[in-house]
Amino acid sequence: MKCSIPKGTRDFLPVEMARRNYIFDTIRDVFKVFAFEPIETPSLENLSTLMGKYGEEGDKLLFKVLNSGDFMKDVDFSQDYHKVAPRICERGLRYDLTVPFARFVVQHRDELVLPFRRYQLQPVWRADRPQKGRYREFYQCDADMIGSDSLLNELELVQMIDLVFRRLDVSVTLKINNRKILAGIAELVGAPDLLVDITVAIDKLDKIGLENVQKELSERGLTEAQIAALNPVFELKGTASEKLDSLDNLFSAIEIGKKGVAEMRELFGYISHAETSCNVELDLTLARGLNYYTGAIFEVKANNVSIGSICGGGRYDNLTGIFGMPNVSGVGISFGADRIYDVLTELEKFPDNLSQSTRVLFINFGAAEQAYAMRCASALRQQGISTMVYPDSAKMKKQMDYANRKNIPFVAFTGEAEMAAGTVTIKNMQSGEQQTVAATEISNVVRQ
Amino acid sequence: MKCSIPKGTRDFLPVEMARRNYIFDTIRDVFKVFAFEPIETPSLENLSTLMGKYGEEGDKLLFKVLNSGDFMKDVDFSQDYHKVAPRICERGLRYDLTVPFARFVVQHRDELVLPFRRYQLQPVWRADRPQKGRYREFYQCDADMIGSDSLLNELELVQMIDLVFRRLDVSVTLKINNRKILAGIAELVGAPDLLVDITVAIDKLDKIGLENVQKELSERGLTEAQIAALNPVFELKGTASEKLDSLDNLFSAIEIGKKGVAEMRELFGYISHAETSCNVELDLTLARGLNYYTGAIFEVKANNVSIGSICGGGRYDNLTGIFGMPNVSGVGISFGADRIYDVLTELEKFPDNLSQSTRVLFINFGAAEQAYAMRCASALRQQGISTMVYPDSAKMKKQMDYANRKNIPFVAFTGEAEMAAGTVTIKNMQSGEQQTVAATEISNVVRQ
Fold it and tell me: Which chain A residue's Cα is nearest to B393?
């Protein structure tokens, strides 16, 4: 029987787990010190919660779970499969962490104290075509703060992004824009109703270049004059503050645009005093696809690595409106753990000692010695040191080989002499050095 | 629109997350110090991997995932739903962690160094009828060691169980038996081919009592004489060692029974020197349902709490045989996190401070003061202290209220006087005490 796993899914071996946990732990630690609290939602959601929230394409990519029992009862199978699917599947797999969070907030509104900061690290599933760096099961790491309009929240997200990538030792550029500025631009060129089309097209600037964006804008219904009117925006130069000054002039009578500029001025003012170390840019061509954003939008790219964005987010004025609870605003970010993994791999930024999970291996010399070794091992374990006693009294070479192949840094010998003296001989597998110490002193030798 | 989640699934709020993580962290820490390494397998497995591995009942309880795209193409819907399901669903959700581990070992056999110890903490899904304490999505926490027949492995599992529950401060009884002894008993009563029936019936002794077990044994084909021949086994009294002596006599010519007795003697000998603190019993009526066990079997119950087993496991001689790779033996245990959660709740054993996630709240007095507060907060966060600056300069009462409702132990005030002096006034919310300290000294006050 051939063993395999579904396309687009992965097994994680201990070395990969150690690397993934290094990323998750770094992100989680930052979420925690910024006073975010963990929540989890079920992997299975009612399809009625998920359908229609991710656009037509999203509905297609939802994994649907077959009803238990006689799922065929009373179902008309002569219909189109799009119509049959929701009749035989009541539940689907989590597609992102935002819609479930919105559902969570509505469902638990009486239990939550606002402002509420939640983080959530869970897998999501999408029936996308698998390709390099794109999986059907992958983790999202989201942090959202709801119930406050203060731009201090945006500042803290910037600080969090900065701290995560500083700790991961990855040089990044954080691009910031504001949806109100994009709305102002749409009004400026006389196409406020085409805001979504304009943002979708502008969003591709990085990928397809200015000419193709202009072509797409034309296809999406902008006139040549409107497209030309966009040019001053693409051509704004200078510092964030200079760009905002120019925009303020362009927006002379456009309220929403001026509001966006004022928000960005305040945020960039905060950032300038916040001692962040990453490169922060105001990028007026940053649009981000999701159309629920209404204020600041963020996107992070790793410098010197050609991969898409590794973190993104923004402010939304109406997270829970889709579930009938208006006026819950918030702002959030999402870290893409899988892409960060690829970046750290390419830059060789994973710490060296991650794969050393077992610290000490006791060689097994037989019945009497193994009892002594087990007692020494117990003491080390009580002190939090990962310790193994080789379970069989196999040949010495086999046991030493095992230590080498498992990358175990210390091997402990407890022969007759050691037992008589109450000592242990410890070999440092890297340096080859050997020393005999009292059994009570082992931890001092093997600790990092 | 009404918000709800599928029956048998749960949202976890921060307080529940803190409690669950306390359990997971305790178990994981013990797995780690015993040199187990983490792996993860996909939530989605090919149904061909899962079907037929959990019995007929298990097949029914598997969640099946609908194929993407036109799943109806070329499928004959006039058949029975049992036949249609595998045609329209190629994948299913993980049902336990054992079968995926077996598949993992076969698939990655060239990458694993034996003996291999893996732990795995992941959710599983079963379309069971939801009821109190039984969910459709729940976590399993498994540790298995493969590639060694040594009973030192069993000893280490006993030590791990002991350590986990000692750390959780739960008094437990660990029952141990051996499948070879059960096989010996089946031979003894002259029904070796009814071993599985006998174990299934005996397994229910705790729940339904001796009389009903005897009734079931009769229904399962044992004669009255055979049932009577079982009585001496039920009536064995004394210490583990005394019971084993009696069994040895009963088994005079039954090899497999004698082998089981010898294994138990060795294991109980190890345990007697291992300084475990939990109550360990040899229970000859312990059977455990899963019929892949071939040696020691374990089951843990909390003393003074009427709930089923909270941990169990055993030795198997042929983990990967179902996937065509013979002779991989091993032994493992699985902790039931959800039941342990219920036990800790009932015994009120969760540490008090788990729900204190945010340590310090800085009161927001307005633009100038908030900048100063943000700098103080950054310094605390760098030191790993969970800190929040209230994002709006709301009324003092509202901000203090927030600290109280969120159970935040320290509130920090940074008014004009503090800013001028480079200090912060900190209020201990429990004692009501207030003190003013240098901004650089805050961490000394708010640390536990």
Answer: A150
Closest by alpha carbon to B380, among B445, B432, B433? Answer: B445
Does the distance separating the beta carbons of A10 and B44 come in below 8 Å?
Answer: no
Query: What φ, ψ does residue A211 adopt, rounded to 5°?
Result: -60, -45
CB contact under 8 A, A65 and B68: no
Identity of residue B105: V
CA of B54, closest CA in chain A: separation in Å? 16
Of A9, A46, A148, the CB nearest to B4: A46
Residue with tokens 């797999």: A93
Amino acid (1-letter code) at residue B150:
S
B389: which chain A residues are within 8 Å (Cβ-Cβ)? Answer: 152, 156
Which residues of B fall within a CB distance of 8 Å from A163? Answer: 381
**φ, ψ for residue A143, nearest 5 deg:** -130, 130
B-chain residues near A320 (CB < 8 A): none
What's chain A's length in residues? Answer: 448
Binary contact (B275, A39; C-beta < 8 A): no
SS3 A115: coil
Q: Which residue of A has its CA nearest to B155?
A: A374
Decide: A56 and A11 in contact? Cβ < 8 Å. no
Contacts of B12 in chain A (CB under 8 A): 38-41
Tell me the nearest-neighbour CA distance from B3 into chain A, angstroms: 6
* Residue A52 CB partners (closer than 8 Å, separation 6+): A59
Q: What does the alpha-carbon distance between residue B359 and residue B386 come to, in Å, rounded to a whole number?
A: 5
Radius of gyration of chain B (CA): 28
Residues of B in contact with A72 (CB under 8 A): 77, 81, 84
Cα-based angle A189, A191, A196 (whole degrees, multiple of 5)? 115
Other C-beta atoms closer than 10 Å to the C-beta of B354 total 15
Using CB atoms, which residue from B32, B46, B73 is nearest to A5?
Answer: B46
Q: How many CB pairs below 8 Å do chains A and B form together?
A: 262
Say whether A43 and B125 touch across the interface (CB within 8 A). yes
| Contact residues, chain B, for A443 at CB < 8 Å | none
Task: From residue A432, give the alpha-carbon distance in Å to each of A353, A404, A411, A428, B171.
Answer: 18, 12, 10, 5, 45
**Per-residue confidence in pLDDT tens, chain B, 448 aa:** 578 999 999 999 999 999 999 999 999 999 999 999 999 999 999 999 999 888 888 899 999 999 999 999 999 999 999 999 999 999 999 999 999 999 999 999 999 999 999 999 999 999 999 888 889 999 999 999 999 999 999 999 999 999 999 999 999 999 999 999 999 999 998 988 888 888 888 878 878 888 999 999 999 999 999 999 888 888 888 899 999 999 999 998 999 999 999 999 999 999 999 989 999 999 988 987 667 899 999 999 999 998 889 999 999 988 898 899 998 999 999 999 999 999 999 999 999 888 778 999 999 999 999 999 999 999 999 999 999 999 999 999 999 999 999 999 999 999 999 999 999 999 999 999 999 999 999 999 998 6
Place of tokens 């312990």: B286
The HSE-up count of residue B314 (CA atoms within 13 Å, CB side) is 24
Q: Do B115 and A14 touch (CB under 8 A)?
A: no
What does the alpha-carbon distance between residue A424 and residue A435 come to, in Å, rounded to a whole number? 8
Residues 6+ apart with CB under 8 A from A341: A19, A20, A23
* Structure tokens that stand for B319 in this block: 């983990």
Q: In Å, how far are A216, A228, B56 from A223, measured between CA atoms?
A: 11, 9, 65
CB contact (8 A) between residue A64 and residue B64 = no
| Contact residues for B306 (Cβ-Cβ < 8 A; gap 6+) | none
Q: A137 and B11 in contact by Cβ < 8 A?
A: no
3-state secondary structure of A138: strand
